[in-house]
Amino acid sequence: MPETMRITPREGYFGVSRSAPGSRHGPRMKQGIQFLAMLSGSLKIEVEGETRHLLPGNMALLLPQRPANFRFDAQQESRYSWCQIDFDDISPGLHLYLNSLAPQLPVDPQMEQMMELGVSITGSRHINNHRVLIELTQTLLHYYSALGALEEEARPRAMPRGLRQACRYISTHYQQPLALEDIAQHAHCSVNHLINLFKHYLNTTPARYLRQVRINQSEVLLKHTQQSVNKIAEQCGFISPFHFSRVFKAAHALSPRQFRDRFRG
User: Fold this and answer.
1) Where's the HTH araC/xylS-type domain (predicted)?
2) CA distance 233 to 245
3) What is the pLDDT of residues 140-186, one digit of tens each?
């Protein structure tokens, strides 16, 4: 992270907006930066003679002092979530850093969760949410930067909202037994369509994706806690300690205990 990125934003906030078919807005020019994540419909953003086409599952970054004109989908209503980050001062170093970021990236489940959390916290009135929102906007900015730093082939593909919902449901419910029907219900699609989505966009199956999430979480617990292997198996949703050890060893060629011992030296 560049030294200049230690500068704290003055304010950060989130929202969700709708635009009628064929709507046009602009020129938009603000002092801060704005993230725009398309939920439905589409948007053409014209900035300094260049046109970006933003489709659902993608996020655009709008930079300070750059006039932008918006042209929304002519056939249907467009919905998008946004995050505004304002600074007291944008130094030359910060300006250079912001200009080095990708103008547009696919939205992955983590980015989607941050945007949804930001919208929820922005609307919260039972706490002083100012500091929380500043921290969250900074986290989103750094995450976007890290994602953009990946080689293009290593970046996640833009995924349909149903697939992102399925991934999110798995990531928050992996500790319990999950049937394909449960995941499909939360993705608002049929089981067959769910399987096709995972195969087409992630080159895997829902069951394999779930297994990998459980393995990833078990690695964290093995490395950073003193919990027993049996307890970790239970915490991560495996049927039994034996099943956990078998699946883990197939993935790492090490048993959970061997993995923990090797990590701790």
Assistant:
1) 164-262
2) 8
3) 999 999 999 998 888 878 888 899 889 989 998 999 999 999 999 99
